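Data deposition worksheet. Section B asks for the primary sequence of the deposited chain exactly as it was used as input, without tags or linkers unless they were present during the calculation. Section C holds the resulting structure in token form. Section D is free text for depositor observations; keep each observation to a single sentence. Incomplete worksheets are returned to the depositor.
Section A, Depositor: J.P.
Section B:
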Amino acid sequence: MPSPSLHAGEVAAVLRPLLREQPRALALGAGLAALTVLAGMALLGLSGWFIAATALAGLQAATAIVFDVFMPSAAIRLLAVGRTASRYGERLLTHDATLSASVHLREQLFRGWARPDAARRLRARPARLLFRLTGDIDALESLYLRVMVPAVAALGAALLAGVLFGVFAGAWFGLAALLWLLLCGAGTALLTALRARHASMRRGLATQRLRERVIDLVAGQTELLMAGRMQAHCAEVAKADARLARAETQLHRLETRAGMAWNAASALMLCAALIAAAWLVEQGRLGVPVAAMLVLVSLAAMEPFTALRRGAVELGRSLLAVRRIAPRLRAQQEHPALDAPPPGWAVQCDRVALVHEGSASVAVPQLDLQLRVGERVALVGASGAGKSTVMAALAGEIAARSGSVRALHACWLTQHTELFQDDLRGNLQLADAQADDTRLWTALDAAGLADDVRAMPKGLDTLLGEGGLGLSGGQARRLALARLLLKTHAPLWLLDEPTEGLDTRTARDVLGRLALEAQQRQCSLVIATHLRREAELADRLLCIRGGRLVADLRRGTPEFEAALGALRQD
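Section C:
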């Protein structure tokens, strides 16, 4: 479990964007929460005063005739209506502002992840990153809704009780009431937060582990069954659920004890108020109606502090979310783009060494590569030779440990066809959000997919399942190609095994369209491949072995033809 200690900078990094999004709404919501509590205390106190005063006035006919029942009753109705309105406004403002701030926070967090090597991280730990965007952001909302807002309301209640006791009973009574409320109410909340911190963190971690295990179970059923690991994985799910249940039980016990402590403190204050009021009435320093008002105010003064109980119990989970999210929110600067090469060149790499994050071995020890504008090269070599690593460096996804990489703005068609649960239009507009339907159809036609989409009942509005479910492998690859063609401002195309898994006819059609579009746009091509049909597009073959370029073969030479013939057939 991570250390519960926090730095002020981490808390500030999270609270700053949370409170900066709608500061007026958040401040007004907290103010309305305090107003609601004050109106409730005033309503209860005034009602007690009015009932007692009316009862005393009714003992004598002369007093009953002159007693004004209209002003107090009107004030009671005003407080009742005002309390209802302020409660509605407080709920509306605080939740709406919090949801808006959470949307902004999620966007910032997502931008913090959108950095080099983000795709690999997402594939490696999808459940964990999803939990950051959902569970951790929801936990941060508790800092405002269940800690800050109740704390403001409770402070207002303590001040009102202290002022009323000070005005009607004396300064010492007012100070004693204020200190008792702050000591018992805020002190109990602080003690509960400290005792629940570790259990709350354990619950947060257990919830994340359980979600990860369940997602792995649902997504990897086939693999688990084939590996004979289904029962073992189900047992891991059961263990994660048991850990979550133990943390929940411990937190429930702490919350119950906190509730008992608050009830005891409230009862003691009520008893003290009754004794003090009776003594002051006996001394003639207070009237019975005012004494009834003070007793009822003391009864209502502890109630706002009980709202802190849930926030105190969940504070540990919120602080854990702060620790996990703050580093991404503090590092919002964009990754610097690669330097542009001199005019006439598309790529220039000089003594470049590449290392994957978290790996101790050097993937590419030294890379020297030059590519002119409009030139086509194919990186060929065995699996694991470093082809995809070089492509990632040219795309800016991997920073060079040493040496320099200069490349034009690139568009990378990876081995994986990344499609999402959205309609065809939404998947295409990932390349250009401003592209209209005319441009989308043009790109689909160039990719050879327009006829298939026109044959679909909803056309561009056809919904796809997760990962492009609903399309064949060839259609999915053509859709990825159409998305590539929409990137009109990318003069360098990086194609990582663009036709792997496609039948020969579909693959040759896709490659032909790629070559035609690249020629018309004068785009430079870098193709990572071990297939002959893909390497035939290239003017040069760059042979990679062990992360090093061991040969640079140009078309028309016997070495080029020999290397091309050694590649795998279609």
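Section D:
The chain has a mean pLDDT of 83.
The chain has two domains: 8-330, 345-565.
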